[in-house]
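Table S2 (continued). Query chain:
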Amino acid sequence: MTSTASSPTPSGKRVTRAAVVTHGTPGQIGSGLARLQAVAQEHDVELLFPEEEAAKHGVGASPDASSADLAVVLGGDGTVLRALTRFLGSGVPVIGVNFGRVGFLSSMGRRELEVGLGRVFAGEYDVVELPTLELEHPGGRTVAVNDVVVSSAALGRMIELELAVGGGELGRQPCDGIICATPSGSTAYNLSNGGPVLMWGLEAIALTYVAAHSLHARPLVIPPGADIIVWNRSADVEAGVLVDGHRVSTLGKAERAVVRIARERSLLATLPEATFVRRYRQSFAS
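Corresponding output:
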């Protein structure tokens, strides 16, 4: 059913049970849920609502949502990211219908919901495996689908970070922070800071400084097997450690975080024609 990111696998498997994940604000998707329910009924697909979704929409919860064939997302990239995290390790691929702004991770727009999901429920979709990041921090271990960010915990205060990659020292750098992004996360915060876009199929990490106080701090692309170690060398400013936008830890003076490619893979389902290049052209290149 799945493969490495460089070789998407056609499913060919008809969907009989689909989990539902929607935007945090129900009004954002308008009649999207009712439209999804109509398509599911037409194709004899049972919809499963995780507890948080059931409470949001006033329907019965499905405790076995992780046994679905597929998860359907109605929302933007943030909602797709939440679903990829929610189903990480379950073997359930996630497909998005864009009700947000950019929609880079979604396979179809809201206008194509009926036709697109009809094809998906009939088994006409591919599954792409995308690398995730393992983060070691003072509080334990966390897996990131999009990115790990180490940044100043004090608004308006610069921090000094020391970096090592693959056992080699990169030195200290005054900056607002550092971003370590997966290929799927490279088109998010990393892109907005001038970092490189990593095409699906790469097993790599994009490393990008945030507002570096230097003319020589440049983004790097890090291969598998090379740990990224980040120390907080600031004397009086703590560094916050964020995973996919959520703070998970704090680095005091001389404390460190370690980032590497994780063993887990996020599973993104896609219509065959919704390739990386097509998404990139439609979202960013125009």
